[in-house]
Structure prediction request, 697 residues.
Amino acid sequence: MLGKGVVGGGGGTKAPKPSFVSYVRPEEIHTNEKEVTEKEVTLHLLPGEQLLCEASTVLKYVQEDSCQHGVYGRLVCTDFKIAFLGDDESALDNDETQFKNKVIGENDITLHCVDQIYGVFDEKKKTLFGQLKKYPEKLIIHCKDLRVFQFCLRYTKEEEVKRIVSGIIHHTQAPKLLKRLFLFSYATAAQNNTVTDPKNHTVMFDTLKDWCWELERTKGNMKYKAVSVNEGYKVCERLPAYFVVPTPLPEENVQRFQGHGIPLYLFLQIWCWSCHNGSALLKMSALPKEQDDGILQIQKSFLDGIYKTIHRPPYEIVKTEDLSSNFLSLQEIQTAYSKFKQLFLIDNSTEFWDTDIKWFSLLESSSWLDIIRRCLKKAIEITECMEAQNMNVLLLEENASDLCCLISSLVQLMMDPHCRTRIGFQSLIQKEWVMGGHCFLDRCNHLRQNDKEEGREGQDTQSKPLNLLTVWDWSVQFEPKAQTLLKNPLYVEKPKLDKGQRKGMRFKHQRQLSLPLTQSKSSPKRGFFREETDHLIKNLLGKRISKLINSSDELQDNFREFYDSWHSKSTDYHGLLLPHIEGPEIKVWAQRYLRWIPEAQILGGGQVATLSKLLEMMEEVQSLQEKIDERHHSQQAPQAEAPCLLRNSARLSSLFPFALLQRHSSKPVLPTSGWKALGDEDDLAKREDEFVDLGDV
Prediction:
């Protein structure tokens, strides 16, 4: 049959071999089309998904091979994804299908994941967009998740080439209405059969009860309260339906200035999280720098009203962090990431080894790792203020929906062990990013708009409310065997304290709250908000103001002392965790950025081998424990078979489970000098994948 092939540069035709691999000339392709169609792989469509266009006899190149090896199959485009249905898809064994994603296949590209589309015309690579007068012989797709797909269209019928190329360009680049996104048709057609365990589920923060639960969990309910004044988004579309504000602030004050032409979200201090010592993390939108005097007067009056309400302790000590003016800009981040991702969008092995020579200089020039370091450093500075100085911290940003979400999330990951669990992390994303109002639609450009138009019309035209499905139901994507890889086998829950210990902790907590926070004593009549109201308002309005709490030198000294002190002690994994931020410690996350590059993977090695070894040891311990229990009870009981998770992990790569399965062994394409330096060339080239000997774990 016609399966894998090699496109050569001429020469004779080799006799066909009675195997899966055949070597054919280009003119022989169409004579075998009938045989290809008989072995077509069935296209799996999700509920509500529709096939738009397709092309047959497409050759998908193997990325790591500069000799243009590949697999023949069909290239299809639906209203959800671009999919390649290769002849080798049916060769998956049972072990591999259990780890396969049930929604996105190995050769699937969702339309929103397409970053750039290129065409090759006479060996020249050009960007494809709009209507084409001439169609390419080769299609290259760069994905936002850093995959690179290359399809040869040289042997595909001309009308099919026009149809599939035009369809892909149109459905990935043309502006869309919100109501035309696939999620709406999927939500309508799919059934929500999810059964949630109330004790072990992701908190969605879409009800008042969820916010009250979070307040109680963090002990923030003594100073803050959840309000439903914006239920149904009737007051402000930019605010969550439910949110948390200081307890003394009456709900009627929240609506007082609504309707005066002033966005309410500009004035509210939204609670994010409370520390064990009572300090809190808050966020607020920075006020526009240029407004007319009438609006400014109303704003000042509104802020005065809030500060009069909450002038008394424990709200009087607040440190402001203006992320809009004193931190990274979104443009800086976007520019750096655009340079950074080009290091990983590799078309072939030759390009990989060419960039490898100047890897570190290219990496440094992108400034991406420095941006990571600055974000971590800012989060540690805020952590120090809350943990060591017992200060409330107020994050300011233009819309409080980009860097506020990022820094707030990092602070909570460092300070709150619950956020470092799977359920806690998923709940954190829901709280800070989804309900926090991050503009996913605009930042990811899902509507492919060139300007800042919103697709609000799509929401208005919905005849009935949609029952959107949660993304946190992993059973939709993975079988139970694959879901076990989402758990850390070495994680140990924090032991619960008995009543006597809890009483001691409660007394200590109250004692900490009563300690003086600074050397200076504030007037009992004029707290921080009353004394510094005018100055703080000027700061929020974007005018010049000196530091409210400490000078920058003092902050740096406090930060360094706090940072060094923590790293000099033994780590409590159920307490505060601070990352290393020194230059050499900020590294590229291989499982995120290198997962699609075969040369960067270690087949049968790396962390996957360690994980496999640990799971095997756990299975053995579990088996021994069952035998001990069986003898102890002196009766035969049916034993559950221990799960055999990664017995074949030699066929997995070092980047699993982030990278997909490696079904075919391939050696790295090293320069000749590299092979000579390694020595024993033949052994390395022919050696089968094997486990890494870990010794005693």
In short: The mean pLDDT is 76. DSSP finds 24 helices and 15 strands in the chain.
